Structure formats: structure tokens, C-alpha cells
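Still learning. Show one?

>
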Amino acid sequence: MNNSTFIHAIRLLGLATCAGLLAMTIGQQAQAEQAAPAKPLPVILDTDIGDDIDDTWALGLLLQCPELDLKLVVGDYGKSQYRARLLAKFLETARRTDVPVGVGLDIEPRGEGPQAPWVKNYDLAKYRGKVHADGVQALIDTIMASQEPITLIAIGPLPNIAAALEREPAIGRRARFVGMHGSVRIGYGGSTNAAAEWNVRANPKACRAVFTAPWDMTITPLDTCGLVTLGGERYRQVRDARTPVPAAILENYRFWSKAKDPKNDVAERQSSTLFDTVAVYLAVSQELCRMERLGIRVTDDGFTVMDDQAKTVRAATGWKSLDGFRDWLVGRLTRR
């Protein structure tokens, strides 16, 4: 090897070494950034917990997401004391009495629901956390007092939220909305016919007020959330977990599933449709969903129809990986 060839080889080796060191530095920085926990997002949950069991799964999921900082839970769509007691006992069971409970509007429907046995002897007055008798005002106050925008996760009909907007319209510019509402192209059970989804149909007027408010909106319609169930090994992992959150979910699921038939053992085998869990996911990430920006209009009979003249919302209208979401859901519910 002559001198010029030797010098050229040394230069190449130096460049390769520098490049390798640079790549290591970038890789280490990326790993550090990925490992560093981001500041949790402040959130409020508005829910008709105690009717369909998916609200209970969604509350448990939210409590298992370190990306979310739950500031308030409020029961919506009547049955105000029943829902507040469910929320308080679940939070107490999960050792999260730092979370205030808001009592929703005392409107129709009244009474209780299929999870009533779980709170049969539970006294709301003994909840160790704060209980707000006026949950709508608590929702307003929490949003207005926050130093950063609140994410309002709504997984039921929306009379509380409509009333809050009427009392204080400014909340529409100080929060973002993430909801389980509507049906764009797919209906219940994967039907190719759009449906009047329950959370909209139960109170179209309230839903319309929410869908025309000035906040940024993201929704999971039936197109995505209506396809989510857990079965097989995934379900067994949640069912057999011995930590407080999944255990409380399964206790409630067993009461719920046996409310009409004491011999029903579905809670030992598979979940019901877990609509509301997708709204919690969308507050954390949208990576596993196909998102579209669509003008959505709420009709008087409870349909959510595409309309270019309506306010634009971000809608999860399909899955990139439904199995990926199921794995994420199980991982979160069973994390210690």
C-alpha cells in the first residue's frame, strides 16, 4: 500500500467512526426522549356509567393510562345518585379518591340499573374524596380554572355538557372534546347501514349543541368502537388479573350480565362490545385508527350525517390495527 492509499484509508476510517458515534448519539437521544414521560393531559370524564357495562371498562382503562390526569368524573343522563355512587365506589376501590365526583343533572331517567347490587350498601357521603352536588358547575369550574386546555372525554348522552355550554359558553374555547358518538358509514355489529347511535339518539338536541360548540372535536363512531370485543387469551388475562382495577371491572360485569338472567356466564368467557374504551384511547393516541376530517350534522332522529356545511370533526372511521388496539387495551388494563 502506498502512502496516499494509506492516508485515504485512515480518512475513511475516521469518517466512519464519526458517523458511528453520531448515530449512537442520535439513537441514545431518541431512546431518552421516548423513555422520558410526557406531562399527563388533564382530563374530565362525563359518563352514563351503570347502564351499558362499557363505561365501567372505560373508567378502569382511563385510570390505567399514565398519559392522562383525571381531574373530575361526572355522571350524565339521569340516575344521578346511582351513577355518582358507582363512580365513587370504583374510584375508592382503585385507590383514587383524589379524583372528585360530580353529581349530574337530576333528570329522566331516574332510578338505578343493572350494577345496583355492587353499590347496594355504599354511602356516597362517606366517599373520602370531594363530591360536587352540582356536577355541571364542577365541570365548568374545572375547565375554567385549568392552566392548560382540558380534554373532556364524553362517553354517554350529553345533557350535562349541553347545560355547561349554556351556562358558560367560554368552556368551548378552553377544552377539547373526545367522544364516543355517532355512526358515519358503519352501524351496530358492523352493519353497512349507518345507525342512530344511542348516545346521540338519547338526546339529539344536547348532542347538536355539543357538536356545534367551538372546541376541537374527535369522535369514535360505531365505525370503529362498535367492533371492539375481547375474547380468548386476551380476555382471560383481564378476567384473571388480581389487581384492583380489572377486579372491579369484572365484579361489575358479572352483576351486569346476570341482571336479566342469573345463569348467564358470559362474563367468564368474553367481553361485551367495549365501545367507550376507544374514546379513552383517542385521548392518548390516534395511531391505530384511520382518521378523517368530516363535517358532521346531528339530525332530529339521532343520526350523524356527513355534511360539508357542518362543523368539521376528526372521526376515527376505520382501524389500521384492531388487534393492535386489543393488545394495547389488555396491556393497559392489566398493568401494575
About this structure: The domain at 52-333 is CATH 3.90.245.10 (Inosine-uridine Nucleoside N-ribohydrolase; Chain A).
